[in-house]
Specification:
Blueprint: H1 2-30, E1 37-38, E2 41-42, E3 51-52, E4 64-65, E5 80-88, H2 94-105, E6 110-113, H3 115-120, H4 122-130, E7 134-137, H5 151-169, E8 176-177, E9 183-184, H6 186-194, E10 198-200, H7 217-226, E11 232-236, H8 241-256, E12 259-261, H9 264-267
Parallel strand pairs: 4-10, 5-6, 5-11, 5-12, 6-7, 8-10
Antiparallel strand pairs: 1-9, 2-3
Helix pairs in contact: 2-8, 7-8
Length: 271
């Protein structure tokens, strides 16, 4: 009888193990790396670094950055650094103003550009390069890259932008990529990594992109300074009149608070 019980128990354990393996295989098969995400962070009011959604922290696995975690403290001995980044798709007079201010203040930033910039506003792209800014890939056409299914299609979009920049400037575009609209999938991040790109998100942005609904200068300055934090990657749209109006004062204020302006090469140097 004991032998029978042992055989029955062994059979039950074997069946449980097989069922567990089958469930694991099904779960793995059901995983979808094309699921689209829209990047955001949860702001904090005490000037500490904001948190990414736990469901999106996998971006770091694929060479994604949104804040400089090496610089997080705000104590007396802590070095303070922020990163100015701009998504530039066209010119309306304000991109040139942004560049003028950055030249006057001797600040370097990163400009993520579209093909429209090299095609229609080459002189501005040349200024970005010649004045020491990092010029980066925002794709050629501003398509939803989370919907791209093949690495070939993904590569074609980024390569077209990099080729246009090279043809204009004679230089290679920096290997930094920002997904249009902050929309991405795990697969698209893997594609970018396979192409040698670091994906740059942000830890602060605000509603500055609609030229017909520009915030007041006082509102924008307060919104940015209330949410500034050490290691911040700041996303601004350079077509914003408000941003062009306040940038000089913002730079002065951040410097007065002890911040310096870092580069993406510095941000990504740790990995």
């Amino acid at each position: 009888m004991n032998m029978l019980y042992r055989r029955m128990a062994a059979t039950v354990l074997l069946a449980a193990a097989l069922l567990s393996s089958l469930m694991t295989i099904r779960a793995a098969a059901a995983y979808d790396d094309t699921r689209p995400y829209n990047w955001y962070v949860v702001r904090k009011k005490d000037h500490t670094q904001p948190d990414a959604d736990p469901n999106m922290t996998f971006v770091e696995k694929y060479g994604g950055y949104y804040v400089d975690k090496r610089h997080s403290g705000l104590g007396e001995g802590d070095e303070r650094v922020v990163y100015l980044t701009f998504d530039a798709g066209y010119e309306n007079g304000n991109v040139a103003r942004i560049l003028d201010t950055m030249k006057e203040k001797d600040v370097k930033g990163a400009f993520f550009i579209l093909g429209n910039m090299t095609a229609r506003f080459p002189e501005l792209v040349m200024r970005m390069k010649d004045e020491g800014h990092t010029v980066c890939n925002h794709t050629y056409s501003h398509n939803d890259m989370s919907a791209v299914q093949s690495e070939e299609e993904f590569s074609a979009e980024l390569t077209k932008m990099a080729d246009a920049y090279r043809e204009l400037t004679g230089c290679e575009m920096a290997k930094y990529y920002r997904p249009p609209q902050g929309r991405f999938s795990e697969r698209s991040l893997r594609f970018a990594q396979n192409l040698g790109y670091k994906t740059i998100f942000w830890s602060f942005a605000y509603a500055d992109w609609d030229n017909d609904k520009q915030p007041s200068c006082d509102f924008a300055m307060k919104k940015i300074t209330d949410n500034i934090h050490n290691g911040a990657v700041i996303l601004l749209h350079p077509t914003s009149k408000t941003n062009a109006d306040i940038l000089g004062g913002l730079i002065d204020k951040l410097r007065a608070e002890g911040y310096r302006f870092g580069t993406l090469d510095e941000l990504c140097a740790a990995k």
